[in-house]
Write a structure and sequence with these properties.
alpha+beta; 7-stranded antiparallel β-sheet; 5-stranded antiparallel β-sheet; 10 helices; binds FE2/S2 (inorganic) cluster; binds fe (ii) ion
Length: about 400
């Protein structure tokens, strides 16, 4: 079954650029295919976990769950950010939940204590000739900081990523200088790829968002921007007569100011960069039909007053709810035998979806290290439970 899908994906990727088709429904609903993705493309890729200013001070932390791995993101005493395995070295209890501040992490089960760098500091009453505290450090996952976002990868040998084309596109906005105004998490009943595709195509803007987005970013003004190995982008342009939405960085051109630059860092980050507003969604796939969505909203300097920021948060909540409603209904129909591969609209509208599928197909051609997936879907980590709370507002 997987090999048939693998061939189908390559066939989709081989279609001519002016005749692209989407993936059939089973790519989005089949548990065995999700198990295959979890063991291959998702396990090998870099994933955005959040913003650096979610952990502004040493001791600040938040947790995440990426596939089967509980993660603990912490600002260490030396000011750098670590992504630790949130798994006690004694008998595997998670060490922290949600977000907060700690001088050390004390396990809630038998009180082993770890420093911010994951070193074991104390193991009460532990008498065991085989015990060596130096060998009981928390595992450290790779970390990369890019544009003020924190990324990690479950593959310890992953090469760092770089996107020169995307740097060129985003650097004028100074995304690393945006400050966090809002964080929220929710679980959507949709396949994670549907959310990537939905966020990255402008074809639906005026249809799904007539009240919220159409006046600023109508479908007709969507324009494809640069794509490369691991990313794609498009401009949701504003009509010329629209009032300014903030000046943003001083180096921005008028054209850059009058659009939202939507970009995806494959496979699980989608974001919208505007002059004064940066919204990013990190997707944590749970199973074929569910994804945990963590979204952050950041603002540029003092461009927006508190009332405007509150209005922008409310607007994005509404926009996300509109997309979520569509995607959750879509997910049901994708299970149909009649959810066939359909034609994609032109480059400016759905070319980004083709970019995503080309990238997925290229990932699928990479040789796999141990692939634990099986055609019957018997993969041990396909249904990942969410840990901790589901939403939190304005952590600062
Ligand atoms: S599991 Fe953490 S101290 Fe026992
Ligand atoms: Fe949308």
């Amino acid at each position: 079954m997987i090999s048939a899908k693998a061939q189908h994906l390559q066939a989709i990727a081989a279609l001519p650029a002016d005749g692209p088709f989407g993936l059939p429904g089973s790519f989005y609903t089949d548990p065995a295919y999700f198990a295959h993705e979890a063991a291959t493309v998702l396990r090998r890729a870099w994933h955005c976990l959040g913003r650096v200013d979610e952990v502004a001070e040493p001791g600040d932390f938040f947790t995440a769950q990426l596939l089967n791995e509980p993660l603990l993101v912490v600002r260490q005493a030396d000011g750098t950010i670590a992504v630790l395995a949130n798994v006690c070295r004694h008998r595997a209890m998670p060490l922290a939940e949600g977000h907060g501040h700690a001088d050390r992490f004390v396990c809630s089960y038998h009180a082993w204590a770890y420093g911010l760098d994951g070193q074991l500091l104390r193991a009460a009453r532990m008498k065991n000739t085989g015990f060596d505290a130096a060998n009981c450090k928390l595992h450290r996952h790779p970390v990369q900081i890019w544009k003020g976002f924190i990324y990690t990868c479950l593959d310890p040998d992953a090469a760092p990523f770089s996107f020169p084309g995307l740097d060129h596109l985003l650097d004028p906005y100074e995304p690393e200088n945006f400050r966090l105004a809002h964080v929220a998490e929710e679980i959507w009943d949709t396949n994670w790829k549907c959310l990537v595709e939905n966020f990255m195509e402008g074809y639906h803007l005026s249809v799904v968002h007539p009240e919220t987005l159409h006046s600023y970013t109508p479908t007709g003004l969507a324009r494809k921007l640069i794509a490369g190995d691991g990313f794609t982008s498009y401009a949701a342009k504003y009509p010329k007569d629209i009032p300014s939405r903030g000046m943003g960085a001083s180096g921005l051109t008028e054209d850059e100011r009058l659009r939202s630059t939507l970009f995806a860092v494959f496979p699980t980050q989608v974001a919208s960069q505007a002059a004064s507003l940066l919204v990013s969604l990190s997707l944590f796939p749970l199973n074929a039909g569910q994804v945990r969505v963590k979204w952050t909203l950041s603002v540029f300097g003092a461009d927006l007053d508190d009332a405007t920021i509150a209005a922008r948060i409310a607007l994005w909540e509404e926009v996300n709810a509109e997309d979520r409603d569509k995607l959750e209904r879509l997910q049901i129909a994708l299970a149909s035998d009649h959810a066939l591969s359909g034609p994609l609209a032109g480059d400016h509208f759905e070319g980004t979806i083709r970019d995503f599928h080309l990238w997925l197909a290229a990932q699928d051609r990479r040789p796999t290290a141990p692939d634990w997936s099986t055609d019957d879907g018997a993969y041990p980590h396909t249904d990942v439970q969410h840990q901790g709370h589901l939403s939190r507002a304005d952590p600062r």
